[in-house]
Amino acid sequence: MLIRRLYTHERAAYAAHLKRLSPEDRRLRFARSGVADQVIDDYVATIGADDLILAAFAEDELVGAAHVALTGSLAEVGVSVDEGHRTDGIGSKLLRQAAAFARNRRAEKLYTLCLSDNRSMVALARRSGMTVHFEGGEAEAFLELPPPDTVTVTEEISSGLFAVFHDWAEMMDSYSAMLVENSAVSPLLEATGLAKTA
After folding, report:
1. Which residues, in sequence order, are CB contacts of 147 under 8 Å at separation 6+?
2. How far, in Å, CA of 21 to CA of 10, rounded?
3. What confidence category does residue 160 fall into, taking pLDDT thresholds of 50, 70 and 90?
4. Whole-angstrom distance, CA of residue 60 vs CA of residue 76
5. Residue whose C-alpha is closest to residue 168's, from 180, 176, 157, 178
6. Could you count the other beta carbons within 10 Å of the beta carbon of residue 44?
């Protein structure tokens, strides 16, 4: 399972993940009913350039994400995980990395709002040490954040470097395949049965 920062040009993958959520899961994620595909597209389009989207990938498919929006000293987070991956601990990993990101930007508090019947999110917030308050059908969860330290900075850097390395490796693989296909080696590989199984 790879968890990394999602680049701006990859946000369509985040929208596709959210659109795979069932109507009930959409209600729980967005704390309201009737969340159509266009609502999701509009939401993703308005995500700020300074916001963070952490994405969890299983075999190159985005199966979970955390959106972190910073407003002053407050970091608001929303978490979603595909139904088939909800027992893999992805939500906890995403929330932990979201907290590290927020701390590195001097946020003093991590915050999430969900419906009070969103038992999965309430349980996740509590497991992560957040204080949960219920009022009027909603649940608000807060976590006081200490200043950044070497652990939070290293965690973010290593996640970013892993993402860069992963993209670099994919680019080199594509580039080398293109060179082989356009070279004198190509007929030899085809004759031996090695042509683009590698």
Report:
1. 103, 106
2. 18
3. low
4. 27
5. 176
6. 19
Q: Is the pLDDT of residue 90 over 60?
A: yes
Query: Positive or negative, the Cα torsion across 80, 161, 144, 105?
Result: negative
Q: Both tokens of residue 1? A: 């399972």
Q: How far is CA 128 from CA 61, 124, 180, 181, in A?
A: 25, 6, 49, 50
Tokens standing for 30? 């967005």
2-60 pLDDT, tens digit per residue, is 888 888 889 999 999 999 999 999 999 999 999 999 999 999 999 988 899 999 998 88
- Residue 112 forms beta bridges with which residues? 141
Residue 7 structure tokens? 């680049």
86 with 120: CB under 8 angstroms?
Answer: yes
CA distances from 6 to 12, 67, 104, 157 (A): 10, 10, 17, 14
Helix (H, G, I), strand (E, B) or coil at 77: strand
SS3 31: coil
